[in-house]
Amino acid sequence: MTTVATRRNVPWSRVLGRNLTLATGAGILWLFLMVAIAAPLIAPYDPIYQDAAVRLAMPSLAHLFGTDNFGRDIFSRVIWGTRIDLQIAVIGVLFPFLIGTFIGTIAGFFGGIVDTIFMRLVDIILAFPFLVLMLSIIAILGTGLSSFYIAMALVGWVSYARLIRAQMLVLKNSDYAVAAVSLGFSRSRIMFRHLLPNAIAGSIVFSMSDAVLVLLNGAAISYLGLGVQPPVAEWGVMVAEGQSFITTAWWITVFPGLSIVVLAFGFSLLGDGLGEWLGVRE
Amino acid sequence: MSEPVLSIRDMTVDALLDGETRTLIDAVSFDLGRGEILGLVGESGSGKSMICRALVQLLPSKAISITGGSVMLGGRDLTVLDEDAMRAVRGAEIGMVFQNPTSHLDPVMRIGDQVAEGIRYHQGKSRSDAKIMAIDILAQVGFPDPQRQYDNYPHEFSGGMRQRAMIAVALSCNPEILIADEPTTALDVTIQAQILKLLMDLRDARGLSIILITHDLGIVAQTCDRIAVLRHGQLLELGEKRQVLSAPQHAYTVSLLKSHPSMLEESILPSSKPAALLTTAKPLLEIDDLVVRFPMPGLGLFKGGKAHVAAVNGVSLRVMPGETVGIVGESGSGKSTLARAILGLTPLSSGHISFDGLDLAQQRREALAKIRTQAAMVFQDPYNALNPRMSIGAMLAEVLASQNKVPASRIAARVHELLDLVGLDREFATRRPQSMSGGQCQRAGIARALAVDPKLIIADECVAALDVTIQAQIIDLFRDLKSAMNLTLLFIAHDLAIVRNLCDRVVVMYRGQIVEEGRCEDVFARPQHAYTAALIAAIPDIDPDKPLMGGLSAETIPHLLTA
Question: What is the ipTM of this complex?
């Protein structure tokens, strides 16, 4: 038998060197993260400061991405918007991921009535169009980002629960699961220590493409006026604000729109790269 | 030997991985005569399958290619043919039979159509002609009612019948050469004997040349004319069967022959019945009229009227401390279910299992607690039995910690002791299963069982997935451990020869029941039940002069008709 190098033994630099997709995706996300952290340092203007003298200015050296109808600097707003949109992508994925993974693990491992209850719940949630459900929850809770996160957590977990459950159904019959039972390990130990680490790779990969959807959803919700409220700089809000000027001042819409696309692209690449690295076939 | 049908000269196959070139097949040359059966023998990784895939240019990856040599078939060099020409060769001139008939047959296509497809494609026959020819071929490979069975799907057949169907598909285009890649490895031993007999009959009837790839020297001894021994992609030895078996030239061939379990190790047998026969001792394990039933799939839509199938049906067995009992039987005989029931992993339908005096049905909690701390299991598939995300050391430490028999401060030292005990280097504590070979994984699995410090170890087919030389090592390890630690061992296997080498007592299971039980020597020398006799006779012996099935005809054994 040949010896296969284990994943953990390979240094990060070599993993990234061989996996260009992973490297590019991670690079893009790292760049956005740096921009978000350093926003006060890089942004040339206050993102909500209105300068009536330079309303709807074309992109120029003074205003790299131009200005909007209130005379706010688009470049600064895009930079500050990175903070909000990264946060939306991360928090909007994290809670559904945790909840879905937990429920999926329990449902898949125990099966029977527990499984039936949770999976019917999943069916009910999936029976509604995603955005309609989101909008009604936000409408009940009131507008704002925290409502958006709660709505995401209530609706988004179903995909993770299904993914993990399917894996658990297979893994719980594997010999090492049987071995763990026969060695007298507790159920929670078998579930979370032995089976979950082997089941989770697919969900991690999926969470990256999910981040793209969450990001677009967050932008869409803000666009509809139910998420981030003006004048806070958020890309979706900016796109919404710019649409009435699209024929005369394209830059108001295009630059935040482009940022969404590039960040989404970064998540997507990272997801593909992780899939390759973790050996997940989709 | 007449003019060879197939002539391979200095065939070299290289793989290009991460910029490094690795030679998988190193300048192998051999001829295949008309009507000859050539056995390619070697262990996993020896390149025996790779050679045959290279012959028909069905290499598993683009990184692997034939880089030298020639393969002459009827005056053409196959290595330089393009894909279109190769497609005409595959099937029409070289047919292939694979190890796993279940995954190589199309599950949604009728068996007969799969045979007829090749006839229509390669011989250009009409639909109705092809059907007539397909039925004829199905009859030739032993389908009792080919007219009706033409319309059946693969899942309606047993493994043996599926393998017959695969052979029928391979024969459909009337090839000159048949490559059979481990055709019987996935089959029970009595079915294996039938398939091998079928291959030999086909050779006689059609003048077929066959390349038979196998890891089992017994099969080669029984069926082949010449043997080629391979290791690490090199041809070590090639010669007439009797010559290779009786006077092997290469040291590796000698060691392969030695590892074959049908070689009785006389010196070991007499010494292996110690305290077991002291009738005064209390049995460690007592099974009384055990029944385990499973609900039949597909019929459970409405409650009530659920059909059940009994996997274990009225088994009684007593195992004394320190005894080694072999449980043999073919797939579906209920031996694995029995093992799981003993360990409390499967609920009992009726009957009793008592372990060290505690009844698993009546005092379930106490009995389970005892079993979890005093019994352990070793599994068949060494890779699937270990958690791929845990290092061996972490795995052993976890067992030691949960069993609470070793103080926390001693756990690291104990892990090393366990590794020593199963013959693994201490550096394996940091390794993960994916970087280890099958044999090493199985040793780690045994170490995990020993970490419990058990009185009873149940080994379920624990060598079935391993190469013969590794099998022999693992059996030796069990033998050493058994004598060193006074273990009680329940050894489940379908391979009778292995059981004969290791066990004091043997229990033969057939369709959920014990049909025969007794001391190993007695059962093997004088089997009482027809099924046991058939099982023993079906072991391919390494001695070519002992015919397969030992003169027993299929008609005398009721079981074989249903295969």
Answer: 0.72
